[in-house]
Design brief:
The protein is built from 11 helices and 8 strands. It is α/β, with parallel strands linked by helices and 301 residues long. An 8-stranded parallel β-barrel has the order 1-2-3-4-5-6-7-8, surrounded by 4 helices. It is globular, with a radius of gyration of 19 Å.
């Protein structure tokens, strides 16, 4: 009986701990759409989830902001919207001047509907071009978004032992190229990671986010992209990432499954929609969350 009593006490403490943690950390469950074909089916799939999702829209290279107006308007009523100014793969193709023009165009055209502006994507990736050019681009976008009082996000690329040039290691790049203003003022800092690109390494995310919190003490932190092309591992990856348990202050989740449009739309015929929805529900139940404890309309704390 005494042993049973001890077990009950321990379980109660754990439940209180989880509840307390949930109350202190708003949560975000993200998905990514890398195209707006069949936007009505995409909207239906997103709106059918039990919990309100945050949707990253990848704005395609050399496409006018006006091309996204209708899609953004349709998504606005069913999801929090994060707008990715430009995918990292194409950053090198834009001069600093062109990136500035793109920033002005997109923020002016869509700013009122986009809740969070991702001003730089996978910024330390080795494929983005010279670091000084990348720095100039994201600094301008950050300053512009802040001047318009929009929430800002920066996505880093986790690459432990997966870089060619050590200068591009994530923490080293941040320390060398991210301004103090951004370190203090970014609303969200996310980490993009694909296990397939890094010898299937599963990082110690608790240590990673504890370290990021020191560098970005005022930012909400989370996973900014994850996914796999390997069909037989998609369910495993979804469950692993969306059910991550991290105790770092201001850790909010995120995850932003990259292949949502391909894997989950239309939702009635794609089994992975149910896998993702169940993973989100399981996570929310673990943290004892209700709708009031989800990130909504880009809010923080």
């Amino acid at each position: 009986m005494k042993q049973a009593g001890y077990i009950l006490i321990i379980v109660s403490i754990m439940l209180l701990s989880c509840t307390s943690f949930a109350q202190g950390n708003r949560k975000m469950y993200g998905i990514t759409i890398d195209g707006i074909n069949n936007i009505n089916s995409i909207v239906t799939a997103i709106s059918s989830h039990r919990y309100r999702m945050t949707t990253r829209i990848v704005f395609d290279e050399w496409v006018a902001a006006s091309a996204y107006s209708s899609a953004v308007n349709k998504l606005d009523s069913v999801t929090v919207i994060m707008g990715e100014l430009l995918d990292s793969y194409y950053v090198k193709d834009y001069t600093v001047h062109q990136y500035k023009l793109r920033t002005d165009e997109y923020l002016n055209a869509l700013g009122s509907k986009v809740d969070i502006w991702e001003i730089g994507n996978e910024v330390n990736g080795e494929w983005l071009g010279p670091a000084d050019s990348v720095k100039a681009k994201i600094n301008y976008a950050y300053d512009k978004a802040k001047s318009m009082q929009y929430r800002t996000a920066l996505t880093l690329y986790y690459n432990k032992n997966c870089w060619e040039n050590p200068q591009n290691e994530m923490f080293r790049w941040v320390n060398s190229h991210i301004s103090n203003d951004m370190k203090q003022g970014l609303d969200f800092v996310f980490v993009s990671y694909y296990e397939d690109d890094c010898n299937n390494l599963q990082p110690n995310w608790q240590v990673v986010f504890d370290s990021l919190h020191v560098l970005f003490p005022n930012s909400n932190l989370g996973i900014g992209e994850c996914g796999t092309n390997i069909a037989g591992r998609k369910e495993e990856y979804i469950n692993r990432y969306y059910n991550m348990y991290i105790t770092t202050p201001r850790y909010i989740g995120g995850y932003f499954w990259w292949y949502y449009r391909q894997d989950c739309v239309p939702w009635t015929t794609k089994p992975l929609w149910g896998v993702l929805d169940y993973a989100v529900r399981s996570s929310a139940l673990f943290y004892n969350l209700d709708e009031h404890e989800l990130i909504k309309d880009g809010d923080g704390y």
